[in-house]
Amino acid sequence: MNYHPSTHTPLTFHDRTQAFLDGGDSPRDYLERCLDTIARREPVVQGWVVLNEAGAREAADASARRYREGRPLSAIDGMPVGIKDLIETRDMPTQMGSPAYTGNFPKRDSAVVRALREAGAIVLGKTVTTALGFLDPGPTTNAFDPERTPGGSSSGSGAVVGANMVPVAVGSQLVGSMLRPASFNANWVLKPTYGGMNRGERQGFSQSHVGIHAGCAQDMWTTSIEIVRRVGGDPGHPGLYGEAAPPAGRKPARLAVLETEGWERLDAASRAAFEAALERIAGQGVRIVRRADCSLVDGLERAIAQAGALSMRLISWEHHWSLKNMAEQHPGTLGPSLVRQLELGQAMTLERYRHDMLEREAARQRLAALATQCDALVSLASSGPAPRIADLRGTPYPTGDYSFSCVSSLLGAPAISVPALGVDGMPVGLQVIGQPHGDEQVTAIGRWLHALLAAPR
């Protein structure tokens, strides 16, 4: 592939709704174009577990009638959507990428799915996830190069959006599971503030999130708001703040560079692309703040220096009992990464978990201290372009290094991946991280950065 953000044309939805109202297009025709793309690209990408084509066509026809009558249910009425196969749907199985859950069919909608249907969106199918949303990969390949990983755990959601099969897909992130696939597959993605979008049945972890992959910022934001206005955030959380209309691009005054623990492992080409982007940003009068310039940035860097290992310890403790049940009930179904998770969790103690929680809270306080020092943090969303699948076998990162993408999960902070960079003919996302509940602001800054960096030169 020869990807470049200035020439890539993603699939979008928001710009078709007026044609639906005018009669120049229809949700059914839009869906059929998506299905045509799926028929052409899915044999290689392998991003879907199951499709409900009949149900989708029925929903598209109902949406088309509403548009003809001038009464669409929402701004996303008629939009085909993929749902990560960790998230329950009433009309399709939820098999979680694991043989232990083959045929699992709860026959109920998770909160986000319920909200999407109430808004008139078309739930087209379930997208591939790594096993239980961790590291053991499924069959999905990268949307731009089938020899490369799509990332994980939202492998299918990232790939089907990147391949223009659907304009939007739902993902989830516990460590780096949305930001990394978005970066590898040229998606926009919003990993919201912790608790900002209702996780429904998936509330068993203290830093997991549900979010939205999309071909453009407008569809990403609108879908997120339509969901949250119907089902809110997690219980006890206020949900995503912001207006229904996508925020316009907003130039920041100051951006702090966040290197993360992955900086030393970053390849030269990706580092050069990032530095060139920072130079262009600074050329617009934005002050770039680095750790050498600001003790508060340096303090945050120190606090997240082992963010990946800290996150893994926390989540291993939180679900070791569940993995143990699974290993006993379904022998031989845990992949190598899940076996390591179980071993790590069983080696943990409650005292260590409490210590790790305090360490995480200290990092969050370090982030809060930066609120008056910068408008947002900027980093890469992945450690360069998607690696080749063959090169990842037997490594600790079978879906790619998560050191850049795990930080916002640990911090509970909103983050987006902006498809603004190209390295060696492959996409690399620019990550923008904000303060908790600053989801609208990071989206606005991300739109400004995209307009600057992805414009033809």
Describe the structure.
With 457 residues, the chain is α/β, with parallel strands linked by helices. It has a single domain (1-252, 378-457), classed as Amidase signature (AS) domain (Amidase signature (AS) enzymes), CATH 3.90.1300. The chain has 15 helices and 11 strands. It has helices at 17-22, 27-45, 53-68, 111-118, 155-162, 179-184, 217-231, 268-282, 295-303, 307-329, 336-347, 350-368, 389-392, 407-411, 439-453, and strands at residues 48-51, 80-84, 122-127, 168-173, 188-191, 209-214, 254-257, 287-289, 376-380, 415-423, 426-433. The chain has an 11-stranded mixed sheet, with helices on both faces. Helix 4 crosses helix 7 (217-231). It is globular, with a radius of gyration of 21 Å. It starts with 16 loop residues before the first helix and ends with a helix. The mean pLDDT is 98. Its EC number is 6.3.5.-. It is an enzyme of class 6 (ligase). One of its GO terms (molecular function) is ligase activity. This is Glutamyl-tRNA(Gln) amidotransferase subunit A. InterPro entries: Amidase, Amidase_dom, AS_sf.
Query: How big a fraction of the residues is strand?
Result: 5-15%
What count of structural domains?
A: 1
Question: Which residues sit in consecutive blocks of at least 5 with pLDDT less than 50?
Answer: none
How would you spell out the order of helices and strands?
A: HHEHEHEHEHEEHEHEHHHHEHHEEH
**Sheet with most strands:** 11 strands, mixed
**CATH-defined superfamily:** Amidase signature (AS) domain
**Average pLDDT level:** 98
Could you say what the CATH architecture is?
A: Alpha-Beta Complex
